[in-house]
Amino acid sequence: MISTPVLVLNQNYQPLNVCGVRRAVVLLDVGKAELLENGRGAIRTPRSTVPIPSVIRLIYLIKRPILQRRLSRKEVFLRDNYTCLYCGRETKQLTLDHVMPRYRGGAHTWENVVSACSTCNHRKAGNTPQEAGMHLPREVRPPRVNPYSLFIHKPMQDGWHKFMPWMDK
User: Fold this and answer.
1) Which pLDDT tens digit goes with each residue over 64-82?
2) CA–CA distance from 6 to each of 64, 125, 149 (Å)?
3) CA-CA-CA-CA torsion for 27, 32, 38, 41, nearest 10 degrees?
4) What average pLDDT does the structure give for the chain?
5) 8-state DSSP, 111
6) Domain ranges of the chain
7) What is the C-alpha to C-alpha distance for residues 159 and 39, in angstroms, rounded to an integer?
8) H-state helical runs in 15-82
9) What is the topology classification, in CATH, of domain 73-124?
10) Neighbours of 88 (CB within 10 A)
11) Coil, helix or strand at residue 120
């Protein structure tokens, strides 16, 4: 029960993080948070009974900077929906391709890296798409910043849905 996840909300009810019950109880005990949801019973100690929180809200506002997504293979594939941007084929067998090849001064940036199947990557080789007779269907951009990306691939507890603005009710 102590390691059960607890949703931590900012003072303005924006989801911030997920912590364990132990950390949540400490935040409640020292007055840094308030209990919003308790659907899990209580912990009994010799002196008191402490409710097991499922959602807490911080008393003070945390100004958290929105982090840019890190350029990695997985993030590029997610941005491009696991699709080769040259031929449009959806597959999990993708490679990274630099639109302007690195040896010709192309940078390793969001705007210069795309998903490509191995066939298209070999066909393009060390050329630009125009030189290889290929084209990109759209301008390549960095993915949009999502302040809730921390929660997208984590399992959600039943009582959390009303605090998650992007989730279907």
Assistant:
1) 777 777 899 998 998 999 9
2) 19, 49, 17
3) 40
4) 87
5) G
6) 5-65, 73-124
7) 8
8) 21-29, 73-79
9) DNA Binding (I), subunit A (1.10.30)
10) 10
11) helix
